[in-house]
DNA sequence: GATAAAGTTGATAGAATCGGTAGAGATATG
DNA sequence: CATATCTCTACCGATTCTATCAACTTTATC
């Protein structure tokens, strides 16, 4: 499961939005996080359409988190942009599909292995919220004051 | 880390070669495992060039495992065809590279998370050999006799 | 209600990757 | 030498990824 640029941008933007609880304009986000503006529009729109963000148009508008930062987990974001966590479709929990050339998924030894990988990944990403992520970032920042 | 078709083909071929300790022809492997022949040539060649297989040309030739089935782990095969196990280059152990747009890898909270994912994946794939995989396949086959 | 700020949408495009094919070349064996 | 087999280089079509553009719609404020 290679993380796409899109997902990385999304998570960076969400980290900001999890802190600011006021609407933030696309332009501001794009500048602060150094994300191509037009590309970011797509990303935020998709997050909006999936109920993670809400938007307000017009003056004073922008995007803000619709849920609580504790209630958005990394797994959800990754799945939204990069698809199922599982390495093969046959090992996916939420999006199972037998592999095209697989005669018998239940007799496939590889599938068992890949289910282990998926489960391990999901255990990490589904138990980590935006709030946790920001908390970690703060913890690291305290350890290396001055940054860079 | 989505598993490519190439990797799946490679593992299927290796499972066969881990059982037969005689040279097996490309054509035979392609037929038995239902893999496009020309595509399989590439795959076996790459495994050969990386010291996992050895080859013999001419009559009676073919490919065979160069190492012991216990000494080839899934992690090696996956890395060969699909690249590093880590979800981001900055979280890779063997192929670390700072992300293009990352100012400070050490201060990146996401990186820490992705290292956890990488480690969990590696722990599974690097501790499982071809021999283990075949053993698992046999175990499943015994549970569902008749197959299919 | 005019106007401007802001989000929404669809089309497009270049680059990279993936799955696969073609064919000539090299080499071992009988 | 003839044949069987692997080796190597090039190429192709489809898809995905990243990103950009232009046009449109909605809303806040004056």
Automatic annotation (TrEMBL), chains A, B:
This is Rrf2 family transcriptional regulator. GO terms for cellular component: cytosol. Keywords: DNA-binding. GO terms for molecular function: DNA binding; DNA-binding transcription factor activity. It holds the Pfam family Rrf2. The lineage of its organism: Bacteria, Pseudomonadati, Myxococcota, Myxococcia, Myxococcales. It comes from the Bacteria.
């Amino acid at each position: 499961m290679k993380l796409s640029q899109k997902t990385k941008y999304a998570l960076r933007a969400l980290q900001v939005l999890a802190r600011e609880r006021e609407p933030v304009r696309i332009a501001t986000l794009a500048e602060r996080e150094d994300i191509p503006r037009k590309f970011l529009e797509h990303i935020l729109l998709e997050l909006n359409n999936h109920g993670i963000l809400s938007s307000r148009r017009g003056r004073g508008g922008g995007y803000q988190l619709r849920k609580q930062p504790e209630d958005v987990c990394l797994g959800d974001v990754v799945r939204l942009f990069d698809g199922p966590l599982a390495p093969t479709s046959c090992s996916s929990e939420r999006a199972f599909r037998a592999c095209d050339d697989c005669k018998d998924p239940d007799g496939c030894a590889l599938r068992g292995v890949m289910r282990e990988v998926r489960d391990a990944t999901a255990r990490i990403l589904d138990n980590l919220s935006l709030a946790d992520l920001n908390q970690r970032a703060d913890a690291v920042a305290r350890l290396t004051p001055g940054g860079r």
